[in-house]
Each structure stands twice: as structure tokens, then as C-alpha cells.
Amino acid sequence: MDLITAIRSRRSTAPVTDAAPSEAELREHLAVAAHSPDHAGLRPWRLISIRGAARQRLGDALVTGFGDEPGTPAAAKTASRPLRAPLLVAIVCTPVQHPKVPAWEQLAATAAMVSTLELVLFNAGWTAMWRSGPAVELPEVRRLLELAEHEQLLGWLYIGGSPDTGPAQNAAVGSAVVEQPDPEVGGKLSELSAGTATV
Ligand SMILES: Cc1cc2nc3c(=O)[nH]c(=O)nc-3n(C[C@H](O)[C@H](O)[C@H](O)COP(=O)(O)O)c2cc1C
Question: Cross-referenced InterPro entries, in alphabetical order (predicted)?
């Protein structure tokens, strides 16, 4: 698939199938995504994959963290949230003190990498949806993921197989490739006039 087609076709999909990239495949995709813009090449991020029963541990942490009464429908709903995909990948920004790269740039570099990873996964036939919400701040969740004080949880990529929804197929796994129209961005770009030099 060419780059422009991939960008126009990638979509966050839910629900997804039970198929997921292996740990080795995920590592390969991450290595590609790691080419994303990154001031000083700090790679100020790390990922934690969460599969199978580990997703239930996350669900339990959500239930405790949100204070849901165990055994209630609300608790069951909260606990089932991580089960919406076979593979969750926690996205952690790991900023360091750097004389030239402030923390905000490291956060931006992390987001750039994740965006690229979504595209790389799509190109390989998978679907990924970035989800976050107040759960990222819960101490129970941070403890489960063994996050250090300075690390910031940016949510999870929910990764799985795309249900077969269209005629064109992505050869790798069989996901549908449907190009979406470009969003209207007319008001999002302006040009500074040459004007008169003031400095
Ligand atoms: C940082 C971040 C956090 C997000 N968190 C959520 C979320 O918690 N729930 C949700 O439904 N979508 C969330 N989204 C949006 C989806 O990931 C997705 O981008 C959006 O539904 C648009 O779909 P598309 O990716 O197919 O264009 C988030 C996106 C970003 C960038």
C-alpha cells in the first residue's frame, strides 16, 4: 500500500477480532515507528503490552481505582473494558532532563511515534485505537504498570484484527482498505506576509 493510501484509509476500529500481532511482530513495527521525529533521538517513551489474562489485571485495577462496588454491573462493565481487544499496549512517556529538549517536546515526540505506529500497524493489516481517559491517572493503574513518578501514562493502543468490512483487502491480515475523503482544512493554514522587517 502506498503511504497516501494508508494515511487516508487508516481508521480506529471497534470491535476488533481476536487476532493480534505477536510480541516479535509488535517489536518490528515499533522499530519502524521509532523513526518518528525525535529531538536529540531521546526515544522518550516505552510501551507495555497487555494480553490475555493480564488484561483482567488491568480491569481489576480500573474497578478498584474507580471505586466500583465489586459484583455490581458497573464493576463488571469497568472490568471488561480492557477486554475489548486482544492486545492493549500502554503508552508511557518517559521524559528526561535535557538541556535542549524540554518535556513538552518529549511528549510531542511520543505522540508522533504513536501516530506512526498506528499507521505501521494498519499497513501490516491490524487496527489500532488510541484510548485514554481518567484511568491514566489512577494510582492503582500506575502501580500495576510499575510506572516511575516522572513517567506519564498516555493511554492504550487497543490492537486487533479488522473485521472484514470492505471489498479491498490489505493482504497482510485481510483488513478492509477504504480511502476516506480528506477533512476540510482550508482555515487551518495561513501564510505570514513578508511585511516590513521590524527586527
Ligand atoms: C491521545 C488520544 C486519546 C484518545 N482517547 C480516546 C478515548 O479514550 N476514547 C475514544 O473513543 N477515542 C479516543 N481517542 C480517539 C481515537 O483514538 C480515534 O483517533 C478517533 O476515534 C478518530 O478515529 P480515527 O482514528 O479512525 O480517525 C483518542 C485519541 C488520542 C490521540
Answer: NAD(P)H_nitroreductase, Nitroreductase, Nitroreductase-like, YdjA-like
CATH number of the domain residue 18 falls in:
3.40.109.10
For cell 518535556, the residue is: 103
Locus of grid cell 493511554:
155
Q: Are 92 and 151 in contact (CB under 8 A)?
A: yes
Q: Residue 133: CB within 6 Å of ligand 1?
A: yes
Is 8 touching ligand 1 by the criterion CB < 6 Å?
A: no
Atom of ligand 1 nearest to the CA of 13: 26
> How many domains is the chain built from?
1
Q: Which atom of ligand 1 is nearest to the CA of 133?
A: 8
Q: Which range of residues forms the domain containing residue 22?
A: 3-51+82-163
CA distance 64 to 85: 21
Q: What is the pLDDT of residues 114-161, one digit of tens each?
A: 999 999 999 999 999 999 999 999 999 999 999 999 999 999 999 999
